[in-house]
């Protein structure tokens, strides 16, 4: 039995509500993915900083780090 035939048999045994959920999921899955919106400006800088320093720092702490990098 092919995979398609197995899927059809499985779907036949599901309740109508679950089949509708499955069909909605398939419809979304078939659509090409939308490109993620990229942050701009200060929001992008905060996201980049969060990757480097996961815990929150005060402005003063960040300034110390930045000034140390200038030296």
Describe the structure.
The chain has 4 helices and no strands. It folds into 2 domains: 1-32; 40-71, no CATH class. It is rod-shaped and about 70 Å long. It has 71 residues and is mainly α.
Fold topology:
Elements: H1 3-12, H2 16-30, H3 42-52, H4 59-70
The global form is rod-shaped
Supply the number of helical segments. 4
Question: Ranges with pLDDT <50 over ≥5 residues?
Answer: none
**Overall pLDDT, averaged?**
86
Broad structural category: mainly alpha
Oligomer: single chain
User: Approximately how much beta-strand content do the residues carry?
Assistant: under 5%
Query: What is the distance, rounded to the nearest whole angstrom, between the alpha carbons of the first and last residues?
Result: 70 Å
Order of helices and strands: HHHH
How helix-rich are the residues, as a percent range? 55-70%
Largest sheet: none
Radius of gyration, in Å, reads: 25 Å
How many DSSP E strands? 0
Give me a quick take on this structure:
With 71 residues, this protein is mainly α. It has helices spanning 3-12, 16-30, 42-52, 59-70.
Key descriptive features of the protein:
0% strand, mainly alpha, 2 domains, 71 residues, rod-shaped, single chain, 68% helix
């Amino acid at each position: 039995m092919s995979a398609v035939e197995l899927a059809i048999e499985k779907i036949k045994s599901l309740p109508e509500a679950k089949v509708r959920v499955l069909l909605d999921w398939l419809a979304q899955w078939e659509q090409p993915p939308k490109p993620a919106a990229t942050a701009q400006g200060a929001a992008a800088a905060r996201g980049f900083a969060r990757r480097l320093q996961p815990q929150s720092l005060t402005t003063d702490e960040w300034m110390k780090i930045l000034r140390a990098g200038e030296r």
